[in-house]
Amino acid sequence: MSDITKQSLSELVENIKSKKLSSSEVTKAFVERSEKSKELNAYITEDYANAFNKAKKFDEKPNLDLKLPGIPMAVKDLFCTKDLRTTAGSKILNNFVPTYESTVTQNIWNEGAILMGKLNCDEFAMGSSNETSFFGNVQNPVDKNLVPGGSSGGSSSAVAAQLTPITIGTDTGGSIRQPASFTGTVGLKPTYGSCSRYGIVAFASSLDQAGPMAQNVKDCALLQEVMSTYDEKDSTSIDFKRNNYSKELTKDIKGKKIGIPKEYRVDGMPKEIEDLWKKGIEYAKDCGAEIIDISLPHTNYALPTYYIVAPAEASSNLARYDGVKYGFRAEGENLIDMYEKTRSEGFGAEVQRRIMIGTYVLSSGYYDAYYLKAQKVRKLIKNDFDDAYEKVDAILTPSTPSSAFKIGEKTNDPVSMYLNDIFTVPVNLAGLPGISIPAGHDAKGYPLGLQIIGKAFDEQNILNIAHAMEEKINFKNNITDWWIK
Amino acid sequence: MSIDLKTIKHISKLSRISVDEKKAEKLAGDLNSIFDFIEKLNELKTDNVEPLTSVAETTLKLRSDEVKSKNLRDQVIKNSPKENEDYFVVPKVIE
């Protein structure tokens, strides 16, 4: 079988279960393709030798009842992996080797998957283009010198380029859905509390969620089913009845009410995004859904709210990086000097910027004006969604206000970079699930995505809608392997 | 609103991030443009709105008070940049 890396997760699982392929053959194929794809810079740390050993072990005594039997995969370098370096894309964690495993990755290994390596990402997941990583830019396989989105940019690049059949990312303001949209892949941000945050390097704890990234909706559903468990090691993990998302997946969405929020028609939105959205509405109708106009009146306040809440939580979470307990240390004349030099040399510019914003909005005299105000507006944003869900079952929007941009194009203007997340951030603020599916191309041939937002804990419904629409859209990613010599 | 260099120096001290003149000027520019953008929130009246602190509408679960992990000393110290036997080592604090 020559085209192993072209197979979807579901095909690979079937071929391993029917013994047409061994885990070793599959692992070898993805490792070889990854080796030929170094120019993409998708990996921070490779773990191929261990992957081969685990695949061999699996093949000697295959347990074919598992959901991911012998399936190799690489994961975002924000998940702690026992005995394998975990950097969060930062110099300050350059030499950090966790002594424990994140719950989400443990769930995945428990179902038979095999770790191939750790994927590049924006530093501490702070970025929308993977350009803040200490380990360099990642190439979007769609075109040379195009960003893969961020912060899960190594993950989106690796899935789109078929270096890994599936992967996982994290999404604080759009970091799974925006890179999925930029690379023509599928990415799900689950409901807050669905996937355990234990062992994930923290960015903004009230917003962070891990989720699956894949080539299609069915693979995404299967991975979500494996990832999502109640975990007592995460105090915000929620104990609710989880579906067998892949088994219960259906294209029958007749009569589902899908809301179209008028406030997402933002000023200056390119016509091709508007057209894509209209096309999406037609696809949803073709699938039997009922389209209803809705209003989410506080949409325009979501980004300013996010840029208070997220940096505030980040400044608190990142206080632990002090050069004492783990990670990078710069020598100083005294303790304070050591702290200040360590953090100044260890963190990159964007992370320092966000720590400073967060420190400022939490500082004495400004807390009420900024942080408390933002928490109140966050409530209004959540109320908007609650009101809308009185009338509809799901909401359809574009995933991003543009297609992928060139490396370097937006690095000097933080606010224009932040605007990338205008359609995804409200979903995190309200703690809801959202999925991005590829839905078309712009004039340059770059992928564009549509987002489906669900009610809390209603992942099954948005997966079903995405699955039904995916068939109508019939998206084909134009990836030419330009980076393989 | 305008964040001046004095404020930047103050925040940098609170953040424990050293900042030289050049970096302070760059940060002042960046933070001012970000705060101009954030000021939009002042358009909204929020006097009677409850702040949202968590989207997870659950109460914390109780568990029995049992030690589940022990003897982690070696693991805890394993990644430290500098240690001496069982201790983290830092620059001298008491003269």
Chain-wise SSE layout:
The complex is a heterodimer of chains A (485) and B (95).
Chain A: H1 9-17, H2 23-35, E1 43-46, H3 48-60, E2 72-76, H4 103-110, E3 114-119, H5 153-160, E4 167-171, H6 177-183, E5 186-189, E6 209-214, H7 217-227, E7 257-261, H8 271-286, E8 290-294, H9 302-317, H10 335-346, H11 349-362, H12 367-388, E9 394-398, H13 414-418, H14 425-430, E10 434-441, E11 447-454, H15 459-473
Parallel strand pairs in A: 2-3, 7-8, 7-9
Antiparallel strand pairs in A: 1-3, 4-6, 5-6, 5-10, 9-11, 10-11
Helix pairs in contact in A: 2-3, 5-6, 7-15, 8-15, 9-11, 9-12
Chain B: H1 5-15, H2 21-38, H3 73-78, E1 83-84, E2 87-88
- Give the percentage of residues in beta strands of chain B: under 5%
Main beta-sheet annotation of chain B:
2 strands, antiparallel
- Biggest contact: A-B, 72 and 50 residues
Low-pLDDT stretches of chain B are none
Which structural class should the secondary elements of chain B be placed in?
A: mainly alpha
Determine the oligomeric state from the structure: heterodimer
For the record, what CATH class of chain A applies? Alpha Beta
Shape of chain B: flat
Strand order in the sheet with the most strands of chain A: 4-6-5-10-11-9-7-8
Main pleated sheet of chain A: 8 strands, mixed
Strand content of chain A: 5-15%
Averaged pLDDT of chain A: 97
Put simply, the count of helices of chain A is: 15
Provide an overview of this structure.
The complex is a heterodimer of chains A (485) and B (95). Chain A is built from 15 helices and 11 strands. Chain A has helices at residues 9-17, 23-35, 48-60, 103-110, 153-160, 177-183, 217-227, 271-286, 302-317, 335-346, 349-362, 367-388, 414-418, 425-430, 459-473, and strands at 43-46, 72-76, 114-119, 167-171, 186-189, 209-214, 257-261, 290-294, 394-398, 434-441, 447-454. In chain A, α2 (23-35) runs antiparallel to α3, α5 (153-160) packs parallel to α6 (177-183) and α9 crosses α11 (349-362). Chain B has 95 residues and is mostly helical. Chain B contains 3 helices and 2 strands. Chain B has helices at 5-15, 21-38, 73-78, and strands spanning 83-84, 87-88. The chains are: A alpha/beta (485), B mainly alpha (95). Chains A and B meet through α9, α10, α11, α12 and α13 of A and α1, α2 and α3 of B.
